[in-house]
From TrEMBL:
Record's keyword terms, sorted: Membrane, Transmembrane, Transmembrane helix
The keyword ATP-binding belongs to this UniProt entry's keyword annotation: no
Name used for this protein in its record: Dolichyl-phosphate-mannose-protein mannosyltransferase
Residue intervals passing through the bilayer: 12-29, 62-80, 87-107, 119-138, 143-160, 166-196, 208-227, 270-288, 300-319, 325-345, 357-377
Length: 501
């Protein structure tokens, strides 16, 4: 028996256990972080488990998000009999541990493998503020990031065999990722790009493989979009056009890269340039590897995904309007980008003939990496110090759990008569804390929805003072158009009744 075969990734296992414990530390005070998206995922999972329906808490089909992450949570709920919000912290502990171990597995397959490099990258993953943020929340990025790594492993296995069977498995993983997050199309793009650059296949076979892989990869997404269309008339929910141009999105993307690199805010003016340099460098690396006939390697699949995902986020944010580019949106790119920016270092160091120079430069590289990780640790410690006292930001922290208005809502649900619609600026919070269904106030952009709202003559309004979403119809606007009577209030919120004859 070759024992070394089984001990080869013992370091990855140890790192995974550390990551498991780190997520426990962050979530032990108040549990997993809950955002509006989290409530949508968890409520849909509960409906899948209990009724076999793809409905959210407000009894409408889930269309803004694809279906697999709620399904994943629903399966866990079915077997554990524990709702996703309660089980979320443990789920994320296992997912983060799996991401760390899988990353170590991938790095052990690199052509120029360096054990010190592997340890440094594993430490950087554990300490990454961006990854720790998403793995302390009930978000689909937690599962999607692991699927990206599975895709990389599956594609690398395909490169060994180039069999139809192995390519089909790559397609299956890609298909599942697309119904975990719509951004899963970047995995399809990565697979197609790598197949196109594969110089060991004749052009005709490349085209055939791309067609086969593409059809398998997109199948579940098409089915999800068709289901959404049949259910609501919309494929991906209501989407507004972008209000941020391409250059501005380059800038926002660059500010995230600066934060990931533990750079000061003084570098923000160069953020767009930093993004451009990174993306152009990734393009240059792939072109160079293709020309040299070295494209079919583990690390190049990682580099290709970092490039495709980065371009997708910047371009799509310039077309469709969603939250400003931030660390959460870019988080699936962190590990591939980290590897893409560092995997060449061991290769270059091995080319240096003089031992003294090689040792000196290796020491400098290690010191720089340790400095980066120490800066990440300081950020992590500050966040832990805050969250150990108040909880993970969102609906699970003390600002919500100990809110006087939330307590008031729980105790005065009898104020609401059955059959009368309830509007609010935070319908997920109303459901989470009271179990009541309510409708979100309309977005100002959708004029027809605003007119429909104002046409209502009889409704309740639950208003949270600590929220201020400028995209929604606000309380001052409503008071100008409707006569409201305050029927309840506490610190940080009020309840109004509109009863027009």
């Amino acid at each position: 028996m070759n024992i070394s075969r089984y001990l080869k990734n013992i370091d990855s296992l140890i790192a995974a256990i550390i990551g498991f414990y780190v997520i426990y530390l962050y979530t032990k005070y108040s549990g997993v972080g809950i955002s509006p998206d989290s409530v949508m995922y968890a409520s849909t999972a509960t409906n899948i488990q209990a009724h076999g329906t793809l409905l959210t808490f407000n009894k409408t089909p889930i269309t803004f998000f694809p279906v697999f992450y709620p399904f994943f949570l629903g399966v866990i709920q079915f077997f554990s009999r524990i709702d996703p919000i309660t089980a979320g912290a443990v789920i994320n502990q296992f997912l983060f541990a799996a991401v760390i171990f899988t990353s170590g597995w991938i790095m052990s397959k690199f052509l120029s493998h360096s054990i010190i490099y592997k340890w440094l990258i594993l430490a950087a993953i554990i300490l990454s503020p961006g990854l720790l943020e998403i793995y302390t929340f009930l978000w689909s990025e937690t599962l999607f990031t692991l699927e990206i790594l599975f895709f990389i492993i599956a594609y690398a296995h395909y490169l060994k065999t180039r069999s139809i069977k192995s390519l089909v498995w790559v397609g299956v993983i890609s298909a599942i990722s697309c119904i975990t997050r719509y951004a899963g199309v970047t995995i399809i793009g990565t697979g197609c790009l790598m197949l196109l650059l594969d110089n060991q296949l004749i052009l005709k076979k490349r085209v055939l493989y791309i067609f086969l892989y593409g059809c398998i990869s997109i199948s579940l997404l098409v089915a999800n979009l068709v289901l959404n269309r049949l259910s609501t008339g919309l494929s991906t929910g209501t989407r507004e056009p972008s209000i941020t141009p391409f250059f501005q999105n380059l800038y926002y993307c660059g500010t995230v890269f600066c934060d990931w690199g533990s750079l000061s805010k003084a570098t923000y003016p160069f953020a767009a340039l930093i993004t451009s340099i990174i993306l152009l460098a990734l393009i240059g690396i792939l072109i160079f590897k293709t020309i040299k006939g070295q494209i079919n390697r583990y690390e190049n699949v990682v580099i290709a995904f970092a490039l495709v995902y980065g371009l997708f986020i910047v371009i799509s944010a310039s077309i469709s309007r969603y939250e400003r580019i931030n660390s959460r949106l870019l988080s699936p790119m962190f590990i591939p980008l980290l590897i893409a920016c560092t995997s060449w270092v061991p290769d270059v160091l091995k080319l240096i003939q003089a031992k003294a120079a090689r040792y000196v430069l290796s020491g400098v590289a290690v010191i720089l990496m340790l400095a980066f990780e120490y800066a990440s640790y300081q950020t992590d410690w500050q966040r832990y110090d805050d969250e150990s006292d108040y909880g993970v930001p969102g609906y699970s922290d003390d600002s919500w759990n100990k809110s006087e208005f939330v307590v008031y809502l729980k105790q005065h649900k009898n104020l609401f008569k059955p059959g009368v619609p309830i509007y609010t600026d935070a319908n997920e919070a109303v459901y989470l804390f009271t179990g009541m269904s309510s409708e979100l106030l309309p977005h100002k952009f959708f004029k027809a929805d605003v007119q429909k709202f104002y046409a209502n003559k009889h409704f309740y309004l639950i208003w949270f003072d600590n929220l201020y979403n400028t995209e929604l119809v606000g309380l001052p606007d409503i008071l100008k158009n409707k006569k409201l009577t305050k029927i309840g209030a506490a610190k940080e919120g009020e309840i109004y009744l509109c009863d027009e004859k």
